[in-house]
Design goal:
Helices cover about 40% and strands about 20% of the residues. It is an alpha/beta fold. Helix 2 packs across helix 9.
């Protein structure tokens, strides 16, 4: 067996060990720096911190917020974060660029195609135009899935790059673009003259995941179990319906009119299905975004 293969096998074994239940592991104030975007996937982390669920599990969670995926990704690549609530596309792109990341669970990402026209109740009602989004990201992937399914006519739209989420919403409300790919609750906060179409249904792939750096997992044996427990406790608390969302709205830079109770229930942190991983992998390969060979079993460990 070559040294290269032995090294790769050792790395996989180390990641698996870090996400397996551990006995007699001492946790006391382990720092966990997570980057969050202005969307509902950040809510369990903010509430989990403020209600003490992470602290009770020995985790000192430090939340850093971003308004664009590019800024968040730069911070991760620079070693300024340990984790982010993101998606499978980012998982593959990070590893392709040399930042080793691992998915440790699927999160509750919710997204919509927000339009500047009222009365758009189905994709057949959408007349097209400029659609604001960020290229080579989950937003473009979901749009391409709608084009592939026939819900959206490619000849009637123009993909328009607007990386910053708040600016994307502002341009939509100001009539500078006809539609925008947005996460919730931004999508549902469109002006009274607009509409929102959901991008995911019960049959759609669920590509939102919690990503953690391989370096962090290797340095903190068994930490996955603790993160999962704290997250699930936060989700259960949210599902009781008594949470105060005011801190989430301000800290995550969500629209002031956001009604976050609409997005309950939150699911437990679950392992991403292999079919979802393979769907995204095919898309990034078709766009020539990755050159390397990536396997589900090596990048999705919990």
């Amino acid at each position: 067996m070559s040294k290269k293969i032995m090294f790769l096998l050792a790395g996989v074994m180390l990641l698996c060990a870090s996400c397996s239940p551990q006995k007699n592991v001492s946790y006391e104030n382990v720092k966990f720096r997570i980057g969050l975007m202005p969307d509902v996937t950040g809510v369990p982390f903010v509430v989990g911190r403020d209600e003490g669920f992470f602290a009770a599990n020995g985790i000192n969670i430090e939340i850093v917020t971003f308004k664009s995926a590019q800024d968040r990704d730069f911070a991760l690549s620079a070693g300024q974060l340990d984790a982010t609530s993101s998606d499978i596309i980012s998982l593959l792109l990070f590893n392709e660029s040399g930042t080793k990341m691992t998915s440790i669970g699927r999160t509750d990402g919710r997204y919509g195609l927000a339009t500047g026209t009222s009365g758009v109740k189905s994709y057949s009602d959408f007349s097209g135009g400029k659609i604001g989004l960020s290229f080579n990201t989950l937003m473009e992937y979901m749009l391409d899935m709608k084009i592939e399914s026939g819900d959206i006519d490619l000849s009637k739209i123009e993909k328009t790059s607007v990386p910053a989420l708040p600016l994307r919403l502002e341009m939509l409300n100001n009539g500078q673009i006809e539609a925008a790919m947005l996460p919730e609750p931004m999508a549902s906060s469109v002006s009274e003259t607009g509409s929102v179409l959901p991008l995911l249904d019960s049959e759609s792939p669920k590509p939102s995941v919690l990503l953690v750096t391989a370096e962090y997992l290797a340095a903190n044996d068994g930490i996955c179990e603790k993160i999962e427990k704290a997250y699930n406790e936060s989700a259960a608390y949210l599902n009781k319906g008594s949470a105060d969302y005011s801190k989430c709205i301000s800290e995550l830079s969500l629209p002031e009119n956001s009604d976050l109770s609409l997005f309950v229930p939150y699911n437990k942190l679950e392992k991403t299905d292999e079919s979802e991983f393979l769907s995204v992998l095919e898309w990034v390969k078709q766009k020539d975004l990755v050159k390397g060979e990536y396997e589900y079993k090596n990048l999705v460990v919990r």
